[in-house]
Structure formats: structure tokens, C-alpha cells
Amino acid sequence: MRPDMKKRYLILAGCLILGVVFFFAKKDLFTGPVGAPAGLSGSQEKDGHTHDSHSHTHIHTGPSDSPESKAVEKESPRVKISPERQQLIGVKKVDVSLASLEKEIRTVGRIEYDETRLATVNLKVEGWIEKLHADYTGRYVKKGDPLAEIYSPELLSVQLEYLNLLKWKKERAYRFQREIEFTWGDRYGTTGRMQTGDLDPLSQGAQQRLKLWEIPDEFVKEIEKKNEAKRTFIVNSPVSGYVLQKPAVLGKRFEPGEKLFDIADLSRVWVIADIYAHELPLIKTGQSARISLSFFPGKEFSSKIDYVYPLLAGETRTARIRF
User: Fold this and answer.
1) Where are the domains of the chain?
2) Regarding the domain delimited by 268-322, which CATH topology (the fold level of the hierarchy) does it fall under?
């Protein structure tokens, strides 16, 4: 081989070796730790980082103080709500504890009388009010107390009819008994007894009419004892309670079945509350409730849901519940 050709091959091989060395040196420079100088050797350490030029493995041995890591820590997501907005949306801070999941529903109710303790006073005869004893709304009456005195021509007529039948029955029975004694042994002697019994259905019919009009037995016995009809009839209270309504006024003429008084026993009342439609799935009968009244400050009454009304108000989209 000629000397000039050999020299050329040596130069080419040297350039090739230098290119390979430069390639690996450049790769190590760009894959080294961030912020490390380019001339740092593979066995040197800085900021807790060890760089191996042969395996290209990075081992982190301590916390990083680089600006990039600090920026990531500072930019962690946070939500801030001003105190004014917290008050508007109802944010509350409580201690973490283990408890059952419950929802409290607050609503406004109103007190009403118990419909099962309401009594309406009326009569089954026509008449006029001649005297009022319960003369104003809100008056408390006891069971059996007089409410009014009424005059009814129809009631007076039945009393007179009943008393006359009783009188005729006694008179005819005495007369027919004497006739039977005088005709003893006559096969027609039983005629007197048959005529005496003919008055019983009539007197029983008059007595039955008084019962159907709900005239007390004491009233009937009294007119029988005195043998005298009463012009007026006293209407007594069927229950103890307060007079809620009083259509009856002095001198008023009333028809059969017309309401004269409404009396309610207020010893037990109802509380009616309104519940929105979206809260109805949470409401069931038997659930407990606490009731507070403005005229009893600081006092609570415990109760339970007794009934959920099946109707929904179209204007307010609420349903009623009863305690």
C-alpha cells in the first residue's frame, strides 16, 4: 500500500472516532439534569442528583428546589367563598362526626279544631226561637246546658194528641170494664176489651213521632206525669265545648234541619301544615315532629304526622299534612 493511501485511511479513521466521541458527549450533555453545567462529569453530584453517563439513569435523592416545582405547588386548586356569599347560600361549618343521614323540613302551620269533636245543633221540626241562653260566639258550654228555648206548633200539636189518647184510653177502659162485669157470661163480652185496645196503636204512633224528632224521654215522661203539654222546648248542648258558629238569633224562624249552633271541643286540636311537592316523597304518616308556637316562646310540643291529604293546591303546588 502506498504511503499516501495509508495516511488517508488513518485520517478517515481518526475523524470517524472523533465523530462517535462527539456524538456521545453531546447526548450526555442534553440528557443531563436540569441546571447542571455542560462540563460536569458522570461521577460528580450536585443538588442531590447523581448522573451516570453510561446508563442514563436519574436518581432523585432529595427534595427539589427548582422554580418549576415551586410553581406547581403554589398553583394547587383552591375554592374561596366570601363571607357574604356563604351567608346567602347557607354554608355551615361543623365538626366531622359519625351520625345518621337525616333531612329536616321546616314549614309553617295553623291550628284548627278537630273535626271529629265538632257537633252541629239542629231540630227536625219547624219553629221559632223565643229565648237564647248561648247568646254569643265563643261561649263555653257544658254537655246538657241549655242553648235556646223554641216554640214549635207541630211539636205542641203532637203533645196534645198524645195526652188526649192517654186520657181516652183510661176513660174507655174503665167504662168498658164496667160493661163487661154487667154482661158476664155473654159470648160478646170481649167486645169491650177489643175496643179498649184499639187506642194503643194511636198512642204508640204519637210517642214514636216524638222519638223520631229526638225529643228526650225525660220530656215525654214529664208531660205524662203532669198531664199537660209544654209550649216551649229547651234545646240542650250535646257536648262540652265552645260555640264556634251561632246562626240562631232571638225571634228567628227556622226550618227542620237548619243549623242553629256549631260547638267544638277544643281540648284536642289539629295542626295543618303545607309541604312543597318535591318534599312529599320524604313525608310519611307516623313521622315525629316538633311544633313551636309564637305565643309559647321557648316551648316545643311533640307530635306525629296523622294524615297526608291527597290533594295538591294548584296555586302554591303544596299539599297539606295533619298533626
Assistant:
1) 113-264, 268-322
2) Elongation Factor Tu (Ef-tu); domain 3 (2.40.30)
pLDDT digits (tens, 9 = 90+) for 119-168: 999 999 999 999 999 999 999 999 999 999 999 998 888 888 888 888 87
Which residues lie below 8 Å from residue 33, measured CB to CB, with a gap of 6+?
46, 47, 49, 51, 58
Please give the span between the terminal C-alpha atoms of the chain, in angstroms, as a whole number. 120
Q: Which of 312, 318, 313, 306 is nearest to 116 (CA)?
A: 306
Q: Which residue type sits at 97?
A: S
Phi/psi of residue 189, each to 5°? Answer: -70, -20
Q: Which residues pair with 245 in a beta bridge?
A: 262
| Residue 230 contacts residue 179 (beta carbons within 8 Å) | no
Measured CA to CA, the distance from residue 272 to residue 115 in angstroms comes to 12
Query: Whose CA is closest to 264, among 145, 139, 118?
Result: 118
CATH architecture, domain 113-264: Beta Barrel (2.40)
Per-residue pLDDT tens over the stretch 19-47: 666 665 554 544 444 444 444 344 444 34
> What distance in Å separates the CA atoms of residue 137 and residue 44, rounded to the nearest whole number?
106
Cβ atoms of 206 and 156 within 8 Å: the answer is: no
**What is the amino acid identity at position 21?**
V
Chain centre distance of CA 294: 19
The three three-digit cell numbers of residue 52, written as one number: 451516570
136 DSSP 8-state letter: S
Distance CA 30, CA 34 (A): 9
Q: Which three cell numbers stand for residue 195?
A: 175496643
Q: How far is CA 261 from CA 99, 235, 238, in A?
A: 54, 10, 11
| Predicted TM-score of the model (pTM) | 0.57
Q: Given this model, what pLDDT does residue 3 score?
A: 58
3-state SS assignment for residue 29: helix
